[in-house]
């Protein structure tokens, strides 16, 4: 897909975006001598690597064939969260009566919602711009970067020699092998944010994070949404009771969820797109105006000439790396979605930091030591970090589980957001935190406290001694610490305490 398709409509905001992240009048510099580091791909992993290395004095080249900022800025985190906020505002108006605030139904101006998104995206883009990185001392090249040998990369008619290189080309939406889908036409995250008219009927294929976020978002903005998931439930990698809370919220927002069904084919009838599904041997049809495919990612390995550099890869998982992010060519590293199972912006950021240490300074930092959380930005949000009960069972680990329902948390009650919980998994018999799941309105903000505790080996019992402001939903985390400390009040301890108190009366 051409990057120009991501810049539609060609209004002033997208023109500003383009002038920052792929200026039409850009002239590639002339390479001089060997680079300490050549970075291919200017998404999060590539930008962090290039900026960090240049800031430490390295001679760095950065190559991008599309838009700097990658998926996150252009077709991912930034535009999606702008839309999600607009959808939440619409829902606040719709549900205001239960707070005693009466208003008419929300009148959503979808074109204005999208215009605001483009404005905000453009306003953020200078941080990822070619001009900024040139000012940081990075040689920025636009074009296809292709390895010509084990230590050279070609961009157009120029050859860049390197001591070390980093592959950070990310991933893109996968093409699903569904009969008739391509012919009927469909949206992905790369084209969704170019819409200017709200689809009256939207069919979303995939009940993972992207599918759930956008299904709820567009339903709240006024689309009639049907979400199709082939698995028995949505958000399959999350805990079942957590996913059920999110599913109930989506259904409350009038998303029709079709689960445990196979997609047989896609066909068209006039302007209608028809997805034919099969369950228990019976076929049925789902009609819509637009189809959004929100499942599957394909690593961007095409055109890189990896064979010329001796870099091993496959088309499913991308570039193969070891725990220090080295490829089979020890002078070439990789970071981000091109090599990591954690396809998140924040993971790409910290993988890039590992690359800087290991590639430039003979460091021994390991990706396996990262504590990587994630969050699905539905309402409520669902955040997780570390181990789950299923993981523990596979590894033969025993856990102690502590759960604090939001229905017992004062601020959640006052906010009308009682559906959810904070749950922590500790190593059996200790307060060492191995994992956590949070379902709450701001779970993504709350999970950070748990991540910090895990990273720095702060036990759950110690969190009980941390004063949290009252009333906040984060206070639920502190209450989990209280739960753990109460487990230490064994019958024997309680008997001894009672004797002491009787003796001191």
Describe the structure.
This protein is α/β, with parallel strands linked by helices. The protein has three domains: 3-173 and 298-369, FAD/NAD(P)-binding domain (3-Layer(bba) Sandwich); 181-295, FAD/NAD(P)-binding domain (3-Layer(bba) Sandwich), CATH 3.50.50.60; 380-487, Enolase-like, domain 1. Helix content is 35%, strand content 24%. The chain is built from 18 helices and 23 strands. The strands form six sheets. Strands 1, 2, 3, 4, 5, 6 and 18 form a seven-stranded mixed β-sheet that branches. The protein has a five-stranded antiparallel β-sheet with strand order 19-20-23-22-21, with helices on both faces. A four-stranded parallel β-sheet has the order 10-9-8-14, with helices on one face. A hairpin with a 3-residue loop joins strand 16 (313-314) and strand 17 (318-319). Helix 2 runs parallel beside helix 12, helix 4 packs antiparallel against helix 5 and helix 4 crosses helix 9. The longest helix is centred in the first third of the chain and has 18 residues, at 77-94. It starts with 11 loop residues before the first helix and ends with a helix. The mean pLDDT is 96.
């Amino acid at each position: 897909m051409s990057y120009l398709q991501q810049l539609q409509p060609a209004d002033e905001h997208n023109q500003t975006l383009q002038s920052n992240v792929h200026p039409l009048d850009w002239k590639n510099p002339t390479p001089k001598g060997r680079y300490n580091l050549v970075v291919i791909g200017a998404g999060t992993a590539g930008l962090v690597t290039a900026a960090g290395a240049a800031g430490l004095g390295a001679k760095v080249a950065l190559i991008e064939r599309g838009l700097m900022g990658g998926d996150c800025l252009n077709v991912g985190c930034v535009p999606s969260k702008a839309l999600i906020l607009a959808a939440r505002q619409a829902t606040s108006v719709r549900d205001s009566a239960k707070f005693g605030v009466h208003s008419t139904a929300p009148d959503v101006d979808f074109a204005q919602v999208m215009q605001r998104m483009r404005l905000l995206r453009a306003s953020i883009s200078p941080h990822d711009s070619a001009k900024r990185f040139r000012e940081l001392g990075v040689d920025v090249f636009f074009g296809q970067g292709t390895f010509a040998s084990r230590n050279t990369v070609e961009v157009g008619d120029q050859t860049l020699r390197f001591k070390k290189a980093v592959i950070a080309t990310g991933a893109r939406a996968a093409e699903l092998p569904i009969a008739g889908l391509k012919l009927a036409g469909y949206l992905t995250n790369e084209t969704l944010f170019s819409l200017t008219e709200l689809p009256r009927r939207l069919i979303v294929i995939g009940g993972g994070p992207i599918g759930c976020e956008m299904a709820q978002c567009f339903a709240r903005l006024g689309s009639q949404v049907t979400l199709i998931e082939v698995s028995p439930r949505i958000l399959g990698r999350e805990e079942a009771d957590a996913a059920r809370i999110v599913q109930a919220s989506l259904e409350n927002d009038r998303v029709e969820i079709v689960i445990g069904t196979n997609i047989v084919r896609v066909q068209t009838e006039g302007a209608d797109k028809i997805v034919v599904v099969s369950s228990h041997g019976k076929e049925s049809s789902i009609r819509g105006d637009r189809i959004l495919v929100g499942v599957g990612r394909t690593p961007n390995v095409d055109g890189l000439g990896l064979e010329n550099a001796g870099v091993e890869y496959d088309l499913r998982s991308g570039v193969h790396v070891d725990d220090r992010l080295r490829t089979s060519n020890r002078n070439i590293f990789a970071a981000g979605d091109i090599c990591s199972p954690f396809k998140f912006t924040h993971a790409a950021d910290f993988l890039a930091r590992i690359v800087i240490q290991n590639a430039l300074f003979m460091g021994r930092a390991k990706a396996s030591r990262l504590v990587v959380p994630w969050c699905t930005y539905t309402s409520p949000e669902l955040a997780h970090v570390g181990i789950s009960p299923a993981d523990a069972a596979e590894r033969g680990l025993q856990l102690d589980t502590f759960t604090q329902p939001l229905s017992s948390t004062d601020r959640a009650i006052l906010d009308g957001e009682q559906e959810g919980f904070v749950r922590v998994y500790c190593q059996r018999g200790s307060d060492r935190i191995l994992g956590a799941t949070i379902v709450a309105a701001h779970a993504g903000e709350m999970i950070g406290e748990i991540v910090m505790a895990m990273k720095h080996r702060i036990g759950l019992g110690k969190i009980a001694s941390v004063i949290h402001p009252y009333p906040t939903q984060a206070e639920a985390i502190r209450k989990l610490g209280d739960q753990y400390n109460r487990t230490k009040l064994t019958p024997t301890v309680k008997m001894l305490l009672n004797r002491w108190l009787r003796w001191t009366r």
